[in-house]
Structures are given as C-alpha cells and as structure tokens.
Design goal:
Radius of gyration: 17 Å
Strand order of the largest sheet: 1-2-3-4-5-7-6
CATH superfamily: Gcn5-related N-acetyltransferase (GNAT)
Helix content: 25-40%
Low-confidence stretches: 1-34
Oligomer: single chain
Structural class: alpha+beta
CATH class: Alpha Beta
Largest sheet: 7 strands, mixed
Number of domains: 1
Mean pLDDT: 87
Strand content: 25-35%
Order of helices and strands: HEHHHHEEEHEHEE
Distance between the termini: 42 Å
Number of helices: 7
CATH architecture: 3-Layer(aba) Sandwich
Length: 209
C-alpha cells in the first residue's frame, strides 16, 4: 500500500508520513524556523477520508499539473476570476514559481491523499499566503471539485491562518467573487469578517488577530 510519504521507516502511519514530509522539506526552510507543527496537519474530512496538509515543494510540479487537470471551468473561474486556460495554469515557468516558496514573503501548502484506486499520491487542494506588508497577508485557496463540500477548504484556510499568526501577521485578507457562496461560508466559519467591496465588486474577507 502506498503512503503519503515518499519513504518512511516503520509503520506507514499519518504521523510517520508527516515526519517524513518535514524531513524532505527541511532544506527549504530557513534555519530560524523551528515551529514545524504550524505547517502540517492530517485531518479527517467529513466523508471519512484522511488527508495530509504540508508545505508545497519544488518537486510537486508534476502533481500540480495533474491537480489542475481535475478542475472544472467553474472552479477555475471562481479562483482566478477569469477562464484561465489549462495550458496557462500548468505553464512550467508559472508552476515553478507556484511551487517555490521562501517561508517569509510567500508561503503555500498543499493537501494530498493516497488514491485507493491507484495507490498514488495526489494533490487535491492548495492554499497560499502572500505577505503584502509586514503585518498583512493575502490568502487564496483552490480545491479539487471532487473534494469540495468535504471540509477540506476549511482545513486549508485554518492552516494558513495558523501560519500567518505564527509569522506575526496581524491581518489576513482574501478577495472572493460574490457568487462564490461556499468560500464565503468557509471564511465566516473561521471568524473572518465578510463584506462586499463596492469599489471592486468583490467580497472582501478579513481576519485580524
């Protein structure tokens, strides 16, 4: 049976998978970063499926290509506010940038699981934080269609909130299309203030610590 980790010693458990992923990512993390727990989670979704949330890595590019292939046109539109074509979303240069983070100005996590039909790891969601100012960061989330309405979006956003708080960010903000009711509900659930921004005709979700 395949596991969430590339290779682990001992029983193939979520804890070992998380430990192994931390080891793999260690070279990408600044030496001063010691609070690993804020970057990782192994939640169980509403339908019982267990997933792992971890920092994105440069070698995730192939998995991100496959992830983007699973997205419907509507999901793409709600995330990017436009009908961004697949070829643009999986452009190698773009994905290299997406998968490369510095843990200071730019941070991203992915959610992955083991597909029981193929026993292969698959990325099923991702979230990113972009530090706009020393005390403010903008978030964005994208979840595969087959994992929407399972609580995965809430788990990813909660992880981003914890990362922001750990980084001493005071304000997290995200911009959502008015028709994206699901994302607005996720934000409200986590304590965000959700208001219509009349000037740009977008919904602004804000959480202050």
């Amino acid at each position: 049976m395949a596991t969430l980790a590339h290779a682990v010693s001992g029983p193939q458990t979520p804890a070992n998978a998380e430990k192994n992923n931390r080891s793999e990512a260690a070279n990408d993390v600044p030496p001063t970063q010691t609070d690993w727990s804020v970057y990782y989670a192994t939640p169980r979704l509403r339908d019982g499926r267990e997933v792992a949330i971890r920092p994105i890595r440069p070698d995730d590019t192939p998995l991100m290509v496959e992830f983007h292939r699973t997205l419907s046109n509507r999901t793409v539109y709600l995330r990017y506010f436009e009908d961004m074509e697949l070829t643009k979303r999986i452009d190698p240069e773009r994905l290299h940038s997406v998968c490369t983070v510095d843990f200071k100005q730019k941070m991203a996590v992915v959610a992955e699981w083991i597909n029981p039909d193929t026993e292969q790891r698959e990325i099923i969601g991702c979230g990113r934080l972009l530090r706009l100012f020393p005390d403010e960061a903008e978030f964005a989330i994208l979840v595969s269609d087959t994992f929407q309405s399972t609580g995965l979006g809430t788990q990813i956003l909660n992880r981003l909130v914890n990362i922001a708080r750990n980084a001493k960010v005071k304000r997290v903000v995200g911009y959502i299309l008015p028709e994206n009711i699901g994302m607005q509900a996720v934000c409200r659930k986590l304590g965000f203030r959700v208001e219509m921004n009349r000037s740009c005709k977008e919904v602004e979700a804000t959480l202050e610590f």
